[in-house]
Amino acid sequence: MRETMEWLAAELAEEQAAILVTVTETEGTTPRKAGAMMVVLEDGSADGTIGGGSVEYEALELCEELLRQGESAIRTFRYVQGDGDRADGTVTLHFQYLDGGMLWTIQQMAEWAADSKGVWLLRKFQGARVTETAVAALGDWDPEMLQERAVWKDGWLSVMVERPGRLYIFGGGHVASCLAEAAARAGFRVVVYQGWRPEEVWERFRFAEKILCGPFSEVYRQVTLTEHDFAVVLTSDPQTDYEVLKQILSENVQYIGCIGSKRKLSACRERLLADGFRQEQWDRVHAPIGLDIGAETPEELAVAITAELIAVRRDALRR
Fold this sequence. Notes:
alpha/beta, five-stranded antiparallel beta sheet
């Protein structure tokens, strides 16, 4: 939602009103869960999604009415036949009218989202009225409120606007280029570390937030990994794979993956164990990398790896 909030801030600064639509509760099978958000402007443009289908169509119609009235509202909708497997679900949506009075808060969210600590929007509700609003990053609020999922507590609703952490891709080849785009489109903030000059690869990595350059044996000089980060090793040389893994294997990160054949990965494992790393540390490495979908091309491999990253992020992967 970072890009959405940046866009919304710019529109509010131009004195255009908006409706922030938030899924606050769900029941049954629904395409989006509590916390999903969509922004609708006076001119009819919109960004984000609350799940599509009949509910989103009805929500957009209601937004037009609320924008004319300058009002907020709460409504419950049911997905109807024709929305596929979503037909038995209901969602409760909060429609918050926004004008220039919310500009500072929206700007603050957009600015804080540039950090890797993550950003949450917290609102206290009294019926359809928002009585208090806060923006928080990790360490700034009750940690029980700052979760991946939306959280209700004491009348406050906390929704994650930007996830903490980044995806670090080590390597600058074809798979890395395809992965940078696929992962960015899935909501990962991508940093690429490779050995070429940045001006030579910006076009290939236009979806990356940042490109770092330097020897693979000195990754530690520019990269500090956190528990919220993901690391993918995609170099073309077994030696550089080993050099990168030697530096990151002890880090407490969400995910480490390494591309390569079983033979190459086995040789890398033996070298790392000989260096004093433990088997349980190596067991954390997803190698071979990516979900097994029979991928062969760089584009297919990027999809397989991104799918695995999403599964880890959503805590849906069982190893």
